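dumping this here so i dont lose it
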């Protein structure tokens, strides 16, 4: 019989609520906290000002939004940045190339 059950996403169990890391929650919490403080301090109710006041919570909410194959948008942006900033010219160092030639 020897059937083995391998979970499809083993990293999900390491995330809080299956979606967030502690850094994500701190980032989102700081954005929401700043938005609440700004809502209490600023008394004007114009639409452009309200959008500006709500922007910390909206931006941090977008960054921690879960997306497929990455646990959130922030992780995706980080991976894209490191890919484009990293070394992309790879040199073959396999068993058939003598390492003393180069």
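and the seq i came up w/
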């Amino acid at each position: 019989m020897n059937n083995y059950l391998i979970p499809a996403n083993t990293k999900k169990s390491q995330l809080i609520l299956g979606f967030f890391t502690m850094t994500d929650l701190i980032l989102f919490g700081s954005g929401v906290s700043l938005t609440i403080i700004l809502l209490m301090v600023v008394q004007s109710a114009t639409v452009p000002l309200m959008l500006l006041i709500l922007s910390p919570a909206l931006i941090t909410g977008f960054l921690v939004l879960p997306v497929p194959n990455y646990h959130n948008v922030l992780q995706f942006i980080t991976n894209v940045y490191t890919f484009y900033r990293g070394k992309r010219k790879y040199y073959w160092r396999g068993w058939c190339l003598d390492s003393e030639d180069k």
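The CA atoms of residues 81 and 87 lie 12 Å apart.
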